[in-house]
Amino acid sequence: MLDRNSLVLENLACIASDDKGLRCLGSLEHKEENQLQCTKCNSCYSFVNGVPVLKEDSASELYEFYSKVYEKQSRSEAMCEGNPRMEQAKIFWELLPKFVSENNINGYSLEIGCGPGIFADRVPNFIGLDYALNALLAEGFESYYRVCASGDLLPFQSKTISLILSLNTLEHIPHLDSCIYEIDRILKPGGYLVWVRPLVDEGKEKC
């Protein structure tokens, strides 16, 4: 499983910080069958069914909520017509390939808050990032690059991502300023951020 993810693993970074709050950002290597280790500070992270788990807290209420949302949901179910997420994403889903083509994007494409990966085939070199491990382990999502992490502590080396996309997710991240800082850090020069958020109209959200 590591061999299939080796290219993404090369671009992953340690999320640990020192006493002064400075990020380690060391490279990660496969230490044991289900474990990754930082080559700089020796912090260890789990590797679950091909998914690196790189986040500080897996016991929070937010994690529990999103884990239940995606429990036992397959990728094909998420993409079915009539599924609320797919209905919200329809225009975004249709326009993404055109956007990629017009802007000649061919590097890594990271989706923050990817769920079970409905956009995985719409952009090149897709990496799905979600806080909920259940979403990343969804049936039908196994053959794609996936990382379990928080949007405000992105576990990637600086200037490695060509396109970052997010649908109705960034506005739910508790520390949005940290998220924007991290996005700016990992985007390649000339890279793109495509952020779609709901429009609120008289108490109703519209994408």
From TrEMBL:
GO terms for biological process: methylation. The keyword Transferase applies. CDD domains: AdoMet_MTases. The keyword Secreted does not apply. Keywords: Methyltransferase, Transferase. Residues 110-194 form the Methyltransferase type domain. InterPro entries: Methyltransf_11, SAM-dependent_MTases_sf. GO terms for molecular function: S-adenosylmethionine-dependent methyltransferase activity. PANTHER family: METHYLTRANSFERASE (PTHR43591). This is Class I SAM-dependent methyltransferase. It comes from Woronichinia naegeliana WA131.
